[in-house]
Write a structure and sequence with these properties.
The complex is a heterodimer of chains A (299) and B (138).
Chain A: H1 14-20, H2 23-35, H3 40-46, H4 53-61, E1 81-85, E2 90-91, H5 98-102, E3 104-106, E4 113-116, E5 126-130, H6 132-135, H7 139-160, H8 164-171, H9 175-182, H10 186-201, H11 246-249, H12 278-298
Antiparallel strand pairs in A: 1-5, 2-4, 3-4
Helix pairs in contact in A: 1-4, 2-4, 7-8, 7-10, 7-12
Chain B: H1 2-18, E1 23-27, E2 33-39, H2 47-50, E3 51-57, E4 64-79, E5 84-98, E6 105-114, E7 117-124, E8 128-135
Antiparallel strand pairs in B: 1-2, 1-8, 2-3, 4-5, 5-6, 6-7, 7-8
The chains are: A mainly alpha (299), B alpha+beta (138).
Chain lengths: 299, 138
């Protein structure tokens, strides 16, 4: 837990602690943090900061049993990045403590009390993305920012609900990482958004096949597809863990010596729920347009 | 006529969902801290003034003042237990002041994660992301 920091409440808030922290106290906290398991180079960087996060980090580092919460890994000094998450996954557990109780909710259908895995909690993905201020630019960039941030959040929601493959098909392997690396300026962000939209729009082929590939000409187990343009780098051509031929991929299987164990499959809209289909792609495009429209309407 | 009906429908749906912010919220990252969000449905003309944020803690007596700066539209991808759905929601931007500390100002942006969770992005003198979980009053 980040402690008693938020909103400057009380005397021992992060802000008040740091305002009154002497260099000696900072050094002592730094030594404690290193002793508690924080790497020296990280401690050097962290304790140069003037932010209230330092007090929390010192507290956490001094107590190795306390997991450092990912939500605090934002750069408070320069404020160039922020941490966002998606819809978290519910976790079945007992509710016998105060902490568990405040993180629980009643299941919509069963009425059962479920714990909510909070942002940065175990098994719950979070991404560090640039702040809107850090990207700069005008209204067009604001729209692009809203689109990209929304896509990252949607992707995280899918991942948190065990639909990582679908998330990868729709948004790539790690959209949040790409956003942070290439989207911290208006041009880079524009390129990323365009790329994502093109990827999603490829599903516009009307053969009932999200991949845009032509259906096989004949035969129950086609080894190739008939002519036409073949997309080679499309995300939907990645191997699908749900459709792995287990026999072929078994270690001692004779076929595994000659293949990777991922036989070619014809992926259709009627495929596994874990795969993205054309409707998913259309939904993603629709949300992107809505987010951009919201920006234009509200600013 | 068609446009008018659409506008009324939009206003109506917005008003219904915006009320979902109403209630008692507990911070997952700050034990013992609570936020009450009130919403007055009768003053639709000025969205910002419809909301009132009251912060309190059972263990602290600090005075926190939070005023709403703006309210805007948002859309989230939500899993309702059966299927994924697009939900039109609102985001709220506020300014927070600790009356016990001079020149300590934090800006907060509240967005729905799902119907029982809010993600709050703090910037200014405090820079972090927190989750608030809806508390039921029994």
């Amino acid at each position: 837990m980040p402690g008693t920091s938020k909103k400057g409440g009380g005397l021992k808030t992060k802000s008040t602690m740091m305002m009154k922290a002497s260099p000696e106290k900072k050094e002592a906290a730094k030594a404690k943090a290193v002793a508690g398991g924080m790497p020296q180079n990280v401690a050097d960087k962290v304790f140069k900061m003037k932010s209230p996060e330092v007090a929390y980090m010192a507290k956490v580092a001094g107590n190795p049993a306390m997991e450092m919460d990912k939500v605090m890994y934002q750069d408070p000094e320069v404020k160039k990045t922020q941490v966002i998450g998606g819809q978290p996954r519910p976790v079945r557990q007992k509710f016998d403590t105060y902490t568990d109780e405040i993180r629980s909710y009643k299941h919509k259908h069963t009425g059962e009390r479920m714990a909510v895995n909070y942002l940065g909690g175990k098994g719950n993905r979070a991404e560090e993305i640039p702040t809107r201020e850090a990207v700069g630019g005008g209204k067009q960039t604001s729209a692009n920012y809203a689109i990209m941030k929304g896509m990252v959040k949607d992707s995280l929601s899918l991942v948190n609900r065990g639909q990582g493959f679908k998330a990868q098909q729709l948004y790539g392997q790690r959209l949040g990482g790409d956003f942070k690396q290439y989207g911290d300026n208006p041009k880079g962000l524009q390129s990323l958004v365009s790329e994502q939209m093109v990827k999603l729009k490829r599903s516009g082929v009307t053969d009932g096949n999200y991949s845009g590939q032509r259906p096989p000409a004949k035969g129950p187990h086609p080894s190739h597809y008939g002519g036409g343009y073949m997309v080679k780098d499309a995300p939907y051509l990645k191997k699908n863990p749900h459709l792995v031929d287990k026999k072929a991929s078994a270690p001692n299987s004779p076929t595994s010596r000659f293949s990777l164990g991922y036989p070619t499959k014809y992926y259709s809209d009627r495929g596994h729920a874990g795969r993205a289909n054309r409707e998913d792609a259309k939904g993603a495009i629709k949300r992107a347009h809505k987010r951009a429209r919201n920006v234009y309407e509200q600013n | 006529m068609k446009k008018t009906i659409l506008l009324i429908a939009l206003l109506f749906s917005g008003a219904i969902f915006s009320q979902n912010y109403q209630g008692l919220w507990a911070d997952t990252q700050d034990e013992g801290y609570y936020l009450v969000i009130s919403y007055d449905i009768g003053r639709l003309a000025e969205k910002e003034k419809n909301y009132k944020f009251t912060n309190f803690s059972f263990t602290k007596t600090t005075s926190i003042k939070e005023e709403v700066l703006s309210v805007g539209n948002d859309i989230i991808l939500n899993y309702n237990g059966d299927e994924w759905e697009d939900v039109d929601t609102l985001y709220i931007k506020t300014k927070i002041q600790n009356m016990d500390i001079e020149d300590w100002i934090v800006y907060a942006e509240y967005r729905f994660v799902d119907e029982s969770i809010i993600e709050v992005l703090y910037t200014g003198d405090y820079h972090a992301t927190h989750n608030l979980i809806r508390k039921e009053i029994k």
